[in-house]
Fold each of these.
Amino acid sequence: FIKEKLGLKVNMTKSKVDKPQGLKYLGFGFYFDSRAYQFKAKPHAKSVAKFKKRMKELTCRSWGVSNSCKVEKLNQLIRGWINYFKIGSMKRLCKELDSRIRYRLRMCIWKQWKLPRTRMRKLIGLGVASHYAATIANDRKGYWFNAGNKAVNWALNKERLISWGYYDLATAYQSMHVNY
């Protein structure tokens, strides 16, 4: 009927009858919510992996653009992701992704500061005590390690990144989420 009457082509690899947990439909996966006693939608694992890959490309340390350009591109990605998956249940996922994005942004900012004297000056300007700033600025550990440092986390905290133009993923999801 589908082939002859409607003239549609059936893709045998995509078409199947399965339990909702095994389905991927338009980027959504499904799970059973035992509290509401119903199936709910969430982003499929492949969609999350694709988002993470794209986020990693946009926060690459070797991409030679300014951090404001990186934040602008990230904001576009986040807005598109939230607008598409707003009907899905992903509060915890958004918090995890948001913390990962902020960590990577701190890493990019740390690399952009380059020289120890610049790092020290910037950290002191953001309110870190001078003896802590000197210790961290002269640290020879990598960008990834220093992005997780307590003083760097405190200096480049969530509120400061938001004031610099970062679009907070978790807050955006909570404001956009549609309950069905």
Amino acid sequence: MPDTKVYLLDGGSLVIDGFHVFWNRGPAGEVRFPTYSVLVEHRDGRYLFDTGYDFAHVQRVLPFEKPIQTPEQTIPGALAKLGLKPSDINDVINSHSPFAHCGGNRPCPTACTICHAKELEAAAAPQPFEHLGYSDLTFQPALAKQKQNPPPPDPALDIYTPKFQTVTGDIELAKGLWLFETPGHTAGHYSLMVELAGRRPMLFTADACYSKKNLDMMTISSFHLDPAESVRSLHRLKALAEKHDAELFYSHDMESWQGYVKAPGFYS
């Protein structure tokens, strides 16, 4: 794998209300938004940034988010389109640990999971308003035993990614593969930037910025730990994009998603 390639893996979609997408701005009404994972093929290995949600978990715990996910939109199904298996993934990087970003960790038990140290702390003892966000602990079932007010029991808690690497601060994980701290949505939220040979860097906002409209209006989502810090992270993402001449890729923006190249296509 001499040249870095980036694949966007379609993970299906969910629904939330417009007042949650654009906090205190709206308009109200159902907003269906995409979820996706980012596969980076790098000379040092294969990195998977976020893994989407687990359909069975959402149906069991958050059915009001109306999940739509085909077998081809699971991590095993999406990787199969590329002739890959979950065991081909070397590292899973979670931007943060709520259910819509770690639900596909479970099929990757041979990978090392990389996340901010504060995310493991938050998953074990979330604030009351973060309870449903951190409801899928299949990526680390030992946390379920520590957690106050745990979610309904999950029959698959014996399957998880046992290897963890926690990090803090901005860090270059591999040549041209950067994690930037963008907290506020959660305590240890990371955004990812990938440098490529043939195009501008790709800066994946994850949930620090749901959509282009959020950035244009400087409006955060209602799901946050610290709203002021969330706004600072919006400004940071904008500054990082300008500094590195990077293209922003938003986490839950259906309009932008329509224009992205999806796997098996790729960016390089």
